[in-house]
Amino acid sequence: MSESIQPTSAAAAADDKLDFKKILPIFVIVLIDLLGLTIIIPLLPLYAAAYGATAFQIGLLGATYPIFQFIGAPILGRLSDRYGRRPVLLVSQVGTLIGFLILGFAPSLLWVFIARAIDGLSGGNIATAQAVVTDSTNEKTRTQGLGLIGAAFGLGFIIGPVIAFLSLAATGNNYHAPAFVAAGFSVLSILLTWFWLEESHPPEKRVQAMQKKSAFSFGAMAEALRHPTIGILLVLIFAQQIAFGGFEQLLSLFTLTNLGLGARGNSIVFVYVGIIVVMVQGYFIGKWARKWGDRRLILLGLATLTLGMALMAVTPKVPPPFYSQAEMQQELSVARTLPGETPPTQGVAADLPSDANTGWLGLVWLLVAMVPAAIGGGILQPSINSLITKRVAADERGGILGISAAFLSAANALAPLIGAALFAAFSPRAPFWFWAALMGVLLVVAIRRVAPDRPAPAPLPA
User: Fold this and answer.
1) Which of 106, 151, 265, 438 could covalently link to 111 via disulfide, CB atoms 3.0 to 4.6 Å apart?
2) Mean pLDDT over residues 156-163, rounded?
3) DSSP string covering 6-69, please?
């Protein structure tokens, strides 16, 4: 009797543990792919300014990538259900490579926009990468697996800016160099996908997907919102990204106007946030998911993000002792030396704090507030996506993750516009109060609307 129980217990224990050998290839591929993106993102406003872009054009350029990712993500996700994960990843990675090369050779601002649009369409492959994870995990390990994809994002945003800094230092601040370095990482990701990644979506499942679904339609996104079990989850993933994405986009401007932190200070702050997110998504979320389940994780994420945004909103306006208003004004007004370039801060009003009253309270408060904010942001996306995949049939996961990624992209496009409007119309603290209120309302909604039990997967509308 005891001999028959032991193998069963061992199998159950094995089911509780993530198979890192299956996840490692896609984790490394996503990380390498993201390094290209994270090398470019910090420099993009300055790169556009080198072509004489206005503040409005810079904002529009920042929204170009997520807008086109919004279009591309659900298409790539559904195509991966039909034709397999590996070929879709390869095609999208080639598109990303083309986008980086165009950016490096761009002769005008128009070509910079074209490059970002191509990269945005290709950047929707994150949904395909998430589908590989769902194919390679079970319900007990899926949240941890998706969390590792999120951890790759966090690592990318720590390492990418460092690589950008080194490439600029090695080339005498040639802004074209990081684009070519990013293209090099894109080539590496293509090679890794070709030689290392195994197909996780077998042909028999592709046949089922082709028989059941069209490639993609925007009507399918609207139908997904009306889906009885996942509609509220799509609303949650969109809204949490409005808050956390806006937080990431406006953090530098907030710390500049509230604490007088410049480029170097903000770099350290972003690394600090990235480390917390990586710890949460790379290690803790697996343990928490097994202990509490996805629904409780979602509630925890909403609660901590609400707390973090509220604490950020009341950060004392006390610059650190090393702050000098005169030095910061000089840093912001220095004209760069590239031909035809205008100062990157042209047209951007920065109300710097006074250096008459300095101390450590403001910076320490900020770092403390970022702990619950980063924990909440790190928890929500993988836990919501995990719950979504558990509430649809297996052959629909790529498509629904594509729709989820599209909602994330739409939120990324809207978040800086909403945050900047509140920032300009009211005060630097207004966006954080708005995000805190939004997350608090959604916490109440989630308690009432996200079912604690796991319903049987309901088919998505054709």
Assistant:
1) 106
2) 78
3) HHHHHHHHHHTS--HHHHHHHHHHHHHHHHHHHHHGGGHHHHHHTTT--HHHHHHHHHHHHHHH
Angstrom distance (rounded) from CA 9 to CA 6 = 5
Give per-residue pLDDT as tens, 229-262. Answer: 788 888 899 999 999 888 877 787 788 788 887 6
Handedness of CA 159, 160, 163, 169 (dihedral sign): negative
Q: Which CATH architecture has domain 18-203+215-324+347-449?
A: Up-down Bundle (1.20)
Place of tokens 């792919």: 33
**Residue with token string 């370095």:** 181
The Cβ of residue 296 has, within 10 Å, a number of other Cβ atoms equal to 15
Q: Are 375 and 280 spatial neighbours (Cβ–Cβ below 8 Å)? A: yes
Report whether pLDDT(438) > 90: yes
In sequence order, the 6+-apart residues with CB closer than 8 A to the CB of 406 are 69, 70, 71, 73, 74, 124, 221
Q: What is the mean pLDDT of residues 330-352?
A: 45
Q: How far apart are CA 173 and CA 273, in angstroms?
A: 27
445 pLDDT band (50/70/90 cuts)?
very high
CA 47 to chain centre: 22
pLDDT confidence of residue 343: 36
Distance of CA 228 to the CA centre of its chain: 26
C-alpha torsion angle, residues 184, 150, 377, 381 (rounded to 10): 120
As given in the structure block, the two tokens for residue 380 are: 């929500």
Which of 284, 239, 265, 249 minimizes the C-alpha distance to 407? 239
Helices 294-313 and 231-259, axial angle in degrees (round to 10): 30
Each residue of 381-400: pLDDT tens digit?
A: 888 888 888 877 766 766 77
> Mean pLDDT in the chain?
77
Distance from C-alpha of 268 to C-alpha of 75, rounded to nearest angstrom: 37
Question: How many whole angstroms separate alpha carbon 161 and alpha carbon 68?
Answer: 23
CA 364 – CA 14 distance, rounded (Å): 43
Contact 410, 70 (CB under 8 A): yes
Tokens 């990204």 belong to 241
pLDDT at position 314:
94
What confidence tier does 214 reach under pLDDT thresholds 50, 70, 90? very low
Please tell me whether residue 411 adopts helix, strand or coil conformation.
helix
Q: Which amino acid is at 45?
A: P
